[in-house]
Amino acid sequence: ILNVEQSPQSLHVQEGDSTNFTCSFPSSNFYALHWYRWETAKSPEALFVMTLNGDEKKKGRISATLNTKEGYSYLYIKGSQPEDSATYLCAPFNTDKLIFGTGTRLQVFP
Amino acid sequence: DAGVTQSPTHLIKTRGQQVTLRCSPKSGHDTVSWYQQALGQGPQFIFQYYEEEERQRGNFPDRFSGHQFPNYSSELNVNALLLGDSALYLCASSLAIQAGYGYTFGSGTRLTVV
């Protein structure tokens, strides 16, 4: 059974703060790592798909890094805004399916 | 271009009943995966359909079954509902030749079993 862990479980920050979350996964049989942003009552929105060790991807104020050898990925948000409030899910793609972590719930206060 | 559409959005059923949830994939996608998200957990993989066949299955009992139609849409059926089946059910579509990339999710069906 593939165990995907995300930390912290929840995070409350002030507007303007920068923050980061961690996703840990078994490094064997790795193919790709997905990050999703999920706002309440909406569908999960794809942020990044990363495949190579050392991959770094950026989308506006959000960026992510990948270490496939040690099995972790970091998601960074620079200068958090209230609209960044959401649950951030990571999911390694393994044996033809996505395996999700429990997510990090971010709340950004104005 | 419509993304993934799921229906209904909410559903209340009584224990022991049967339920059918529906999913229309994103245009151009041929693979549909179903996930269950129970309270406090991440989405758990139920099964995946491609070419109208179940291609793989997660750790869910046989009460959970599905179907994929020639137009790639899919149904998830749950028989003999238990209180523990109360959850958000997500459908995701993708393209088989791009396995590992390009998943598009619907906004889910919230099932409550009473």
Structure description:
The complex is a heterodimer of chains A (110) and B (114). By secondary structure, chain A is mainly beta. Chain A is built from no helices and eleven strands. In chain A, strands 2, 4, 5, 9, 10 and 11 form a six-stranded mixed β-sheet that branches. Chain A has a five-stranded antiparallel β-sheet with strand order 1-3-8-7-6, with no helix packed on it. In chain A, β7 (62-67) and β8 form a beta hairpin. The model of chain A has no long low-confidence stretch (mean pLDDT 93). In chain B, strands 2, 4, 5, 6, 9, 10 and 11 form a seven-stranded mixed β-sheet that branches. In chain B, strands 1-3-8-7 form a four-stranded antiparallel β-sheet, with no helix packed on it. Chain B starts with a strand and ends with a strand. The relative contact order of chain B is 0.32. The mean pLDDT of chain B is 95.
Attribute tags:
heterodimer, A: 110 residues, mainly beta, 5-stranded antiparallel β-sheet, B: 114 residues, 4-stranded antiparallel β-sheet, globular
Order of helices and strands of chain B: EEEEEEEEEEE
Largest sheet of chain B: 7 strands, mixed
* Overall geometric form of chain A: globular
**Percent in helix of chain A:** under 10%
Q: Strand fraction band of chain A?
A: over 45%
Strand elements of chain A, count: 11
Tell how many strands the DSSP assignment of chain B holds: 11
**Strand coverage percent of chain B:** over 45%
The secondary-structure class of chain B comes to: mainly beta
Q: Rg of chain A, please?
A: 13 Å
* Mean of all residue-level pLDDT scores of chain A: 93
Q: Write down the overall mean pLDDT of chain B.
A: 95
Provide a compact summary of the structure.
The complex is a heterodimer of chains A (110) and B (114). Chain A is mainly β and 110 residues long.
SSE layout and pairing:
The complex is a heterodimer of chains A (110) and B (114).
Chain A: E1 5-7, E2 10-14, E3 19-24, E4 32-38, E5 45-50, E6 56-59, E7 62-67, E8 72-77, E9 86-94, E10 97-98, E11 104-109
Parallel strand pairs in A: 2-11
Antiparallel strand pairs in A: 1-3, 3-8, 4-5, 4-9, 6-7, 7-8, 9-10, 9-11
Chain B: E1 5-7, E2 10-13, E3 19-24, E4 31-37, E5 44-50, E6 53-57, E7 64-68, E8 74-78, E9 87-94, E10 104-105, E11 109-113
